[in-house]
Amino acid sequence: MVLTPLVKFLGIAIAISTLTYFGILSLMIAFPVLQSYLFYLHRVTQTWFKDLNVPEQFGFLHNQVTPFFISTVDGERLHAWHILPLGLYRRHQDELLAQPSGLTGDMTSRLALQLLRDDPEARLVIYFHGTAGTLASGYRANCYRNLYSCAPDKIHVIAADYRGYGYSSGIPSEKGLLIDAISLVDWAMQIAGVPPSRIVIFGQSLGSAVAISLSHHFAFHAPPVSFAGMVLVASFSDVATLMATYRIGGIIPVLSPLAYFPRLLSFFNSFLASTWLSKDRIAQFVKLNEDDGAGRRKYHITLIHAEDDTVISFSHTEVLFWHAVSATSPLGKSCEELEREKLTLKTNLGAGGWSVEWRTERGVIREEIIKYGEHDKLMAYPTIGIAVLRAFRAADPTFGTLIR
């Protein structure tokens, strides 16, 4: 049988594509640093031709945001923003306008920090963003405004670029991002003077893995540190599971072509430099709090995902919810058993989706699956702001009582 030129061309094209694909995977195994560039995409800033030290370019009022640097214990410098809630800014606008603008070398001299530090009723959201971009990319600026929307006089936001992102130094890694997160919390508690009971840890996409790792770290800290709550949006259960379906930008596959060859997929997964075992860490976090004999530990976890998310399937959030809930029982709980119980616990939100709350004497685990919002758009949706308010009220029911 004679092969036509077209068939020959297609055969050669497939062979070249296959060799190129496996060649790239081989390079990633040989040089793990390449995995960092591919997984974290920290060089894809998405804020080209804009100055991150001029937050007004991203829709903020003049001096509503203070850019500054935070130092980590391993010598990196993280570029961060402190975002004032709108109501508080309005009351102090004249004083804030009189201060220098842009990057500050002495954050302690700024009125914005004083307003946070000196108000015993102030609350703080520490925000961890997703992969690619900077702290100002995409919907992130809109999300910051959303986070304080339910209490615009009280909820401050701290956001920072991880090492290697934006103006921050270094190269990202799983260990490095945890150090970055710990550095932010240490700054918030020691410099800003905000106790953990007035802090909500917020993470989206990659940031949700960072948030879980951070809360897990502090739960095992001596003495343990408990935050007001943790809000996790568009999460993934672990990197190995994610890579089996993940496509960069929803288009370029990473390990998904190997999903039909489990042994080959498992082989390449064994070389992953970053694993982010969120499903295991969230289970350990819940179990530790549930097993606290003194009863002093409390926790509040909210998991939010959109059904139409094509970047990370909402099934990852369902897996996280299952692992977290199973950890509340000494004997655990099968996925099938939980699904049956969820049928009676679900609150139907109509076209908005549905939610489930699992309550114990020690804490609350809430899962909310909204119909629409994709991977990033939901960050500007009111569901997010309400989740943050709910977490603060769980720690202090009197907070925001004037908000109906």
From TrEMBL:
Keyword Transmembrane recorded: yes
Transmembrane segments: 12-34
InterPro entries: AB_hydrolase_1, AB_hydrolase_fold
Every AB hydrolase-1 domain range: 124-237
Domain of life: Eukaryota
Pfam families recorded: Abhydrolase_1
Keywords from the named record: Membrane, Transmembrane, Transmembrane helix
PANTHER family membership: ALPHA/BETA HYDROLASE DOMAIN-CONTAINING PROTEIN, PROTEIN ABHD13
Protein name: AB hydrolase-1 domain-containing protein
